[in-house]
Amino acid sequence: MATLTTNINYLQPTGYKLVLDRENYPDLEFFAQSVMHPEMMLNPSEMPFRKIARVAIAGGTIDYGELSVNIIIDEDMKAYTEMHDWMRRLVDNNLKGPLDRDDSTVPSTCDITLSVLNSNNNVVKQIRYLEAVPSVLGSISFEATSSGVEFLTCQMSFRFSIFELV
């Protein structure tokens, strides 16, 4: 029998840490400002039954949405450049990697780990997105009419094979 939790503290939206492959993509995690954990959808199998059009049977397939990360763009555009180069490498094998090395040393996928932190900044749960590949490098809005100091941000999205709770 399940027991009711004794922890009455709510999960804080600022309590997270995102970790990518630090060797190949060190700047992507440093500038991450928000992370949108994707939905997980169970698509049931459907079977016709007598005069009913379809009966849903649990256990069909699982579809995952995209992992979406919003980053602040540094003035050297390092994180943006890392993502750009990663995406270009996936379609153009002749492009050099973010560290100007041979493409064969830079993997096309990486695992991404989102560590969820409690109110004391201790890791309470990790979500690992396996075999992630970039799918979206969002637009940047340069505006000469901005007032005050507003830092530029950019959305990045990743597709992955599966996520697991660790």
Question: Would you give an account of this structure?
Answer:
With 166 residues, the protein is mainly beta. The protein has a single domain, classed as Pnp Oxidase, Chain A (Roll). Helices cover 11% and strands 43% of the residues. The chain is built from two helices and nine strands, in the order E-H-E-E-E-E-H-E-E-E-E. The protein has helices spanning 26-30, 78-91; strands at 16-19, 32-36, 40-49, 52-64, 67-72, 110-117, 123-137, 153-159, 162-165. The strands form two sheets. Strands 1, 2, 5, 6, 7, 8 and 9 form a seven-stranded antiparallel beta sheet that branches. Strands 3-4 form a two-stranded antiparallel sheet. Strand 6 and strand 7 (123-137) form a beta hairpin. The longest helix is centred in the middle third of the chain and has 14 residues, at 78-91. It is globular and about 65 Å long. The two termini are 23 Å apart. The model has no long low-confidence stretch (mean pLDDT 83).
In terms of topology, how is this protein built?
Elements: E1 16-19, H1 26-30, E2 32-36, E3 40-49, E4 52-64, E5 67-72, H2 78-91, E6 110-117, E7 123-137, E8 153-159, E9 162-165
Antiparallel strand pairs: 1-6, 2-5, 3-4, 5-8, 6-7, 7-8, 7-9
Keywords for this structure?
single chain; 166 residues; mainly beta; Pnp Oxidase, Chain A; two-stranded antiparallel ribbon; 2 helices; globular
